[in-house]
Amino acid sequence: MSAGKRINQLLLLSGGLDSWIAWHYLDRPACAFININQRYLLKERNAIGALCERYETLEVLNIEGPDIGHSECQDGYIPYRNLYLVFAALPFSSRLAMGGVLGDSEDDNNPTFPNTVTQFLAHFGRNQKATLEGPLYSLTKGEAVSWYLRNVGDVESLMLTVSCYSPLPGPCGCCKSCFRRWVALEINDLTDNFAQSPWLAPVAEVQKERVRRGQFPEKRAAETILAFRKRGICIA
Ligand SMILES: [Zn+2]
């Protein structure tokens, strides 16, 4: 893809479950993969490469973003991550889209984030009217997977996506991101080759506690409870 001309719509593609589903949900727009020197960069690149091999229409612009990997926290959180991604992509398109689902609650990944960014950007860029859209924020991760199964149905490609903060190959099953992937797949009767069973990993105890303390939005809590129940674990 030529970086010389402005692209009508550009989806920030991470190689994860959400942005892969968002690509289909938005009727397959052009995509951008941004290198921010994250720990799991190689895994994400490999996933996108494998998806590109299966879908000729998947056009991915590779952008060298700022090196913010060194500010990555142990749990995979990178402060301002999605803001950096937006600014790295803005030179190529003023109509951006990102993955992200209902139940996401990081400061730069939640249902109000796209609108907050759009309002912020309105103060800059002369008359560009840059926008950020998050089409999946009306669906939980489980509902997004369900939508994908009903409307796309390509399970093999879904399984090529990676949502894991470990730099090691494959889904570790121990990180927060693997746990959420497990919940979304489990309630849709799918599973992944997790190195460790997420529902038995230490991360599961943390998630159980968060459900019990009411720290998750209602639907996310319900999906988490259901996934545990399917493994014979009652948490509420
Ligand atoms: Zn993981």
Task: Write the SSE topology.
Elements: E1 10-12, H1 17-25, E2 30-35, H2 41-54, E3 60-64, H3 81-89, E4 95-98, H4 113-121, E5 131-133, H5 141-151, H6 155-160, H7 176-186, H8 202-212, H9 218-230
Parallel strand pairs: 1-2, 1-4, 2-3, 4-5
Bound molecules: zinc ion (ZN).
The site of zinc ion has 9 residues, from helix 7.
Tally of separate domains: 2
- The end-to-end span amounts to 50 Å
> In which range does the helix fraction lie?
25-40%
Q: Give the overall silhouette.
A: globular
Order of helices and strands: EHEHEHEHEHHHHH
Strand content: 5-15%
- Unreliable segments (pLDDT under 50, ≥5 consecutive)? none
Number of strands: 5
Strand order of the largest sheet: 3-2-1-4-5
Report the C-alpha radius of gyration, rounded: 17 Å
What does this structure look like?
The protein is α/β, with parallel strands linked by helices. It folds into two domains: about 10-140; about 165-230, no CATH class. The protein is about 40% helix and about 10% strand. The protein has helices at about 15-25, 40-55, 80-90, 115-120, 140-150, 155-160, 175-185, 200-210, 220-230; strands spanning about 10, 30-35, 60-65, 95-100, 130-135. Helix 2 links the parallel strand 2 and strand 3 (about 60-65). Helix 1 crosses helix 5 (about 140-150) and helix 7 crosses helix 9. The radius of gyration is 17 Å and the shape is globular.
